[in-house]
Queue: 3 jobs
Job 1
Amino acid sequence: MDRSIHSEHMGTFSYEEMSKAYTYQEGPVHWALDISDEKANVHEMMHRAEQIYGVLQEFDKQAKIAIANELTAYKNDFWPEYDEDDEHLDWDEVHAGKYDVTPERFAASIRLLDVVIKYEHIYCEYDDGELFGGHRIHAYFENDYRLISAEI
């Protein structure tokens, strides 16, 4: 039995039993329709995926800005761009913010990898651009694309 669903705008999503999701790979972005919630309607989720796909460049741009606004202070406080053990480090420059990452640089550094349409929200995973030592950024959005939270 073929367990796939086709989108005229995106392509064919294949069902993966293990993850209980329909998945599709478009270039560097992996898409999924997570139907693990019993209230999930795959056709409604496909419609939501197509809506995001149609505005993906703008969604991604706004998402990166929101994520940067959420995580830049955390980055600068806990993942510094300097070596704390460097005996020649000028701590006055550190405290003045010389090594701080700006929200603009943060947003420009990260890259969208996954979009998962879930019943109650949208989950996106981003490559951290080495801001956090190669860890992934996990971002959760309302269905109207407003950021709920972002974390490493």
Job 2
Amino acid sequence: MNVKIDSRSKIPFYQQLAQQLLVEIAIGNLQNGDQLPSIRDLAAETNLNLHTVHKSYKELQKKGIIAIKPQSKTFVVIEKSAKAKGVNLQQISMKVEQIMCEAFVLGISEHQLQQMFHDNMRKYYIER
């Protein structure tokens, strides 16, 4: 796995790691049922604290994207149930609204925001 943490970023390390794991799943490098590195192994690979990696895994677990099993085994488990989809759509809708509000408050134009969304959507929906 090719995970890179930007130590100069204002984004917390655990969020950077969780986002990169999400990207790996979105682009197909990690698939349902794939085992992720142990917390200890990923911490060593990324030079992050064990607690930071654990926090990233817990965030993804809360979203139903990974499952953490006894003896540090972690797997990608993307829930496909209607209930999970409903909950996830609601959470994503709230996040999109938060992004839009932040962009507005920061003075990002509607055109700039649309371009950002378009560029990112193309990365995950059109180019696949």
Job 3
Amino acid sequence: MLSKFIIAGAVSAIAATAAQAGDATPKQRFTHEGYTYVYQVKDTKTGQVISGRRYPDAVAFNLAVKNGKVSGISGGQSVAFNVEEARGAASE
């Protein structure tokens, strides 16, 4: 399961990348506990979507960020937590 600690880098990067994304949605990456996460952040009418894969096993994740909450599926498992929890995890 992809915990809030693992995707903290992706959630923390939302604020920094949302302004830069424009029409293009560049892929970003971070490494945590030997895994590399490659993802894109897209703005939608209802919030933001973080989607990508964890390597080397190519496990997919797709998360929605809306109203300060992150939820979605990672590796077939449901995940849900507050954005602020992830930001706190990223700073630890």
